[in-house]
Amino acid sequence: MKYRALGSTDIQVSEISFGTWAIGGSWGSVSDEESLRGLHAAMDQGVRFFDTADVYGDGHAEELLARATKGREQETRIATKFCRAGDIHDPANYSEQTVRLYVEGSLKRLNRETIDLYQIHCPPTEVLKDGRVFEVLDKLQQEGKIRYYGASVETVEEGLICLNYPNVRALQVIFNIFRQKPLEELLPKASAQGVGVLVRLPLASGLLTGKFSEQTTFEPDDHRSFNRNGEQFNVGETFAGLPFEKGVELSRRLAWIAEGRGTMARAALRWILDQPEISCVIPGFKNVKQVEDNLAAAVVPSFTEEELQRLREFYNNEVSMHIRGPY
């Protein structure tokens, strides 16, 4: 496993780390025992960083992380997120009193005294522009409740707003071969300011595995079913904002990226890791096999400049016009 600095912080993250949305809920059925085996398999292979949130399974993902990292707390770093357990449009949701309740709840579930990275969880743009929530986070940082803080954002605009606040040390963004817009401005500016970048949804909710057909169905409690068109939250969180059938068609035309790299999924993760501004990629998983498949991306060949240019042109000419919602 290779490690990278999380921006200008003193946190070293495994370049392939893992997100825990899938094992918390909203991705169909999952077994706690298999989730724990997956977490242990990841740590045994050098993964030292995990991302979670207080709403993943109503805190269940945080509790699973506490169980999996017991006795290994010193070697593992955890990022969690807050705000979506309440009304994200209510200013009171970002008050000191409310945020303290959120952080104390996460600390209890994680069984930790300090959260390594605390992130605002995709709030409305107006909350980021207002900025008062960052003052609350400054206070929690001074008290030692959190080591660093950042924001998980939906759009490039929101990421750029966050860069105006000097103590924002990390951004979590949607970024993949089907979602390349951050390359233009956000990633270079974040890098210049020493802000770490965590990449979520690197496989576009599974489209970039190449395993789906237009007839593929998902369980009712899977967001790929109930949020396919943005019914419950930002449409970009599901299939990178692409209509499912169009995404399947486009993924077929990307099958060539797997040549010499084993699978499309490994190639798609490699493409992200080849971008120098990225601190780590955080794919999800539901079992040991998925953990191992994702980790294999670390050793597959990088993309040539010609291949990178081919993918840029594919995105600009064939993909970007089909993405729905602000991004």
Question: Would you write up a description of this structure?
Answer:
The chain is α/β, with parallel strands linked by helices. The protein has a single domain, classed as TIM Barrel. The protein is 36% helix and 14% strand. The chain contains 13 helices and ten strands. The protein has helices at residues 21-24, 32-44, 60-68, 96-110, 125-130, 132-142, 156-162, 186-192, 223-226, 244-252, 264-273, 288-295, 305-319, and strands spanning 3-5, 12-14, 18-19, 49-51, 77-82, 115-121, 146-152, 168-174, 196-200, 280-281. The strands form two sheets. Strands 3-4-5-6-7-8-9-10 form an eight-stranded parallel β-sheet, with helices on one face. Strands 1-2 form a two-stranded antiparallel ribbon. Helix 3 links the parallel strand 4 and strand 5 (77-82). Helix 2 (32-44) packs across helix 3 (60-68). The radius of gyration is 18 Å and the shape is globular. It starts with a strand and ends in an 8-residue tail after the last helix.
Cα radius of gyration in angstroms: 18 Å
What do we call the CATH homologous superfamily?
A: NADP-dependent oxidoreductase domain
Along the chain, the helix and strand elements come as EEEHHEHEHEHHEHEHEHHHEHH
Main sheet overview = 8 strands, parallel
Q: List the strand order in the largest sheet.
A: 3-4-5-6-7-8-9-10
Number of strands: 10
End-to-end Cα distance: 32 Å
Which fold does the CATH topology refer to? TIM Barrel
* Total domain units: 1
CATH-scheme architecture = Alpha-Beta Barrel
**Uncertain runs with pLDDT below 50, 5 residues or more?**
none
Helix/sheet category: alpha/beta
Apparent shape: globular
CATH class descriptor: Alpha Beta
Q: How many H/I helical runs?
A: 13
How confident overall, as mean pLDDT?
A: 95
Helicity level: 25-40%
Strand residue content: 5-15%
Pfam families: Aldo_ket_red
Domain NADP-dependent oxidoreductase: 15-315
Protein name: Aldo/keto reductase
